[in-house]
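Quick one: structure tokens for this chain, please?
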Amino acid sequence: MPQIAQRSDYLLSQLDVLEAESIQIFREVAAEFERPVLLFSGGKDSIVMLRLAQKAFWPAPIPFPVMHVDTGHNFPEVIEFRDRRVAETGIRLVVASVQDSIDSGRVVEEKGRRASRNRLQTTTLLDAIEEHQFDAAFGGARRDEEKARAKERVVSFRDEFGQWDPKNQRPELWNLFNTRIVRGEHVRVFPLSNWTELDIWDYVRREELELPLIYFAHNRRVFERDGLLLDAETGFANRGDDEPEFDATVRYRTVGDASCTGAVKSTALTLDEVIEEIAATRITERGQTRADDRTSEAAMEDRKKEGYF
């Protein structure tokens, strides 16, 4: 009887396992649903998702469009990157505009110092899903980000009103996903559920993915509010007279609405330096950078129940 060769290199790396899991999720959802869409903002998580989707269907093109729910309060560097990346891939971009929702009377813009368009995205997102008849939306949420995120299934059910109820989530046994819905319902799908922020950065380094420069240390005009360094250059954060602006060397761990996304002091100019910084931190990226998540421990869960990302 011939001897069976023993392989010593069979074990996959952590990133290989995560990548394979995410690719399987993309393929399963594309096979089960009629009109998927990938939520793409130009941030690091959606950039990683775009690469995973490319790998999932290569050499064919990605078989669904990408959509950006645009608050209108964006960092210019991120929008420039978004448009350039979409042009490079040749994928169709759908822009759902919060400003259009305000102009049409669908939502009312908040007033005051802490006004933000972040919550208004919910209506814009649900309207776009209904208009384009999307039945599955890929999002970049990760379970390590925040307590409400950790309650999500990979395939997370939304009812006919777009609402999420943690008590109504379907069980997921191993990698078996319940994809059954009726017309008017949809699911959010999170291929990065089991990834961490450090995994994302390791993958960016391995795949040599380009990111907006806002993720690396740079000089920026900012002001401090509630322990956060908010952007003073775009004018979206409604700085008060008692909140003096100043120059600081900062970078962003996440990029969202400029009115409520804070920067962190950093000297990390390279991927290796960012990864070293992330490995040493004990504060989650949302906890350190998102003003809207500091209102209460249940802030994110409340928004998700309304239909938020």
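The mean pLDDT is 87.
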